[in-house]
């Protein structure tokens, strides 16, 4: 498969769609499972699937682990255990609308972090595109209330989710900066593995995972299976492939599509969005395209075609 910028965009969009679907599916998982235990079951399936694929596609190479074991542990703790744990725990007290808006700030922190590491500022159009896409996300997830004067109260859950979003920014940049001589598949596999181990220890410490798993409903287990395979294995792999092709800063802005895809799934379930939300969808897509330079590429293609 040829690793082109267009392929990176497609893979990243698929990853964000799968993450967007997790919002609905997670509700079924949490009906009879506590948050940390649900995360453990999710990544239990994910780790099994990703290592089967790794063994078939590339083989499990001890040299990659020896060279990057510390990076895999740290990134697994921050980007897998930290981000997902913070999301599930934070939603216990945070408003879902506020939580979605906080998570949508992840591209900004990722670009800032990458700029600091590379000692250069992001391009003006990328900054403008991120700002426009965040405006669109704010319209979508708040139904226009935040833009038109609605107030957002900061609670403990908001702070937890914000810390989780910072963890995902570090993971996104760190897989490209700190991991050496490892493919996206190997990076995904090992960070998931160590992140899952850390989740197990946390679940044992704060919950009773064995009891919770044995008493959970079939629907909750089925939801964890879907999240583990689609919303974890495939999504993480495609995300890391996109980052490897185009870079963390350019790809991070696509994280804004997560609440958009969640909204689309709600529409498919019969919940029609309001006019401010529809406007927000359009603004978000325009902002992402602008930040990626896609609109500029289309403009130059049109100019070249007219010249010919």
From TrEMBL:
> What keywords are assigned to this protein?
Cell membrane, Membrane, Transmembrane, Transmembrane helix
Family annotation (InterPro entries): AA-Vitamin_Transporters (IPR050638), EamA_dom (IPR000620), EmrE-like (IPR037185)
Predominant cellular place of this UniProt entry's protein = membrane
TM ranges are 39-56, 68-91, 97-117, 124-141, 147-173, 185-206, 218-239, 251-269, 275-295
Recorded GO cellular component terms are: plasma membrane
Domain of life where this protein originates: Bacteria
Q: What is this protein called?
A: Threonine/homoserine exporter RhtA
Q: Which organism is it from?
A: Xenorhabdus eapokensis
